[in-house]
Amino acid sequence: MNMNAARIINVKEPLEIQSLETPKPRGSQVLIKVESAGVCHSDIHLWDGGYEGPAGSFMKTTDRGVKYPLTPGHEVAGVVESMGEEVEGFVKNEKVLVFPWIGEGLCPACRVGEENLCDKPRSLGVYNDGGYAEYVLVPSYKYLAKINDMDTDICAPLSCSALTAYGAIKTAKLNPNDNVVIVGAGGLGLMGIQLAKAISGARIISLDVNDEKLKVAKQSGADITINSAKEDPIKAIMELTGNLGADAVIDFVNATKSVETDMQILRRRARVVLVGLFGGSLQLNLVTMPTRAYKIMGSYTGSMTDMIELISLARRDIIKPMISNRFKLNQATEALTMLKEGKIIGRGIINP
């Protein structure tokens, strides 16, 4: 039996629909029939073949261990098609969300349940074939979460977009009386706003260059929106915080220009959480690091436990991933192009 997959054969070239042999699950493996695969910014980096590094350098994905041809797609929801002989607790046609941030299980991060930060990652759709396909092979049933009767389109982004936002919000350790600046109002930023609203009670300031996105940010729960292309964000934020600065900044863009702004709006003891993979470099004023005692932290996706918590939040409509565009498998290149050009507000989904 064969299946279709949209694959990156060569970087920067249109994805090709290939007919591949459908994998047969053995042991604890599970074959999932893909119903929804989210289209994520990190898929664009895989397609481009890398990231922007310091001083205009280019960091290749192959240097990080990515191999081509590759079937991308790490936000995957679908139904159980078939199972290896050791699988327990799941039945055929059961609806599931896949946790894609798979580790080798032996490093210190894996041992404490932070497989997303494994030293030798085996993530689906990054290091192994993912969900831009009719079927995906998941290495163990322990990476599946039951979603019962929930919509797979709504659930797919919970495994990366929402998970990454949730991890960042947790890392920022927000308090109800904090002013938090959330930089970027794309799929990730909007989810970050919803989550900050739901679990922290902090005052949320949303920063973007697109009025359309800021309008949605306001609807998602931002208290204040600032278009940094039209007004000076530093001046605006200092005025909003009585010239003290923000208690936390969560940057879902993480480009040279956005982080240079972040560093100028910090209150003493502020937390800066860098999340986006846009890239670039930053010059630090080293004296202000001790005198202002702020912390700069990175946050990358989240754990299986976090994902299960998110399913609970989504089930009760406390968060609502915004699905704005739907594509067929043969429109994968179009989906990535639209996202790259900033034409998708919310999340795009491929329905194979």
Rg over CA atoms, rounded to whole Å, is 20 Å
The number of domains:
2
Reading off the top of the CATH hierarchy, the class of the largest domain is best stated as Alpha Beta
CATH homologous superfamily assignment of the largest domain: Medium-chain alcohol dehydrogenases, catalytic domain
Tell me what you see in this structure.
One of its GO terms (molecular function) is alcohol dehydrogenase (NAD+) activity. Its EC number is 1.1.1.1. This protein has 2 domains: 2-160 and 302-350, Medium-chain alcohol dehydrogenases, catalytic domain (Quinone Oxidoreductase, Chain A, domain 1, Alpha-Beta Complex), CATH 3.90.180; 165-298, NAD(P)-binding Rossmann-like Domain (Rossmann fold), CATH 3.40.50. A hairpin with a 5-residue loop joins strand 4 and strand 5 (58-60). 26% of the residues lie in helices and 26% in strands. The mean pLDDT is 96. It has helices at 41-48, 108-111, 152-155, 161-172, 187-199, 211-220, 233-240, 256-262, 288-292, 304-315, 332-340; strands spanning 2-7, 16-21, 30-39, 50-52, 58-60, 75-83, 95-98, 135-138, 144-146, 179-183, 203-208, 224-227, 246-251, 266-274, 295-298, 323-327, 347-350. With 352 residues, the protein is an alpha/beta fold. The chain starts with a strand and ends with a strand.
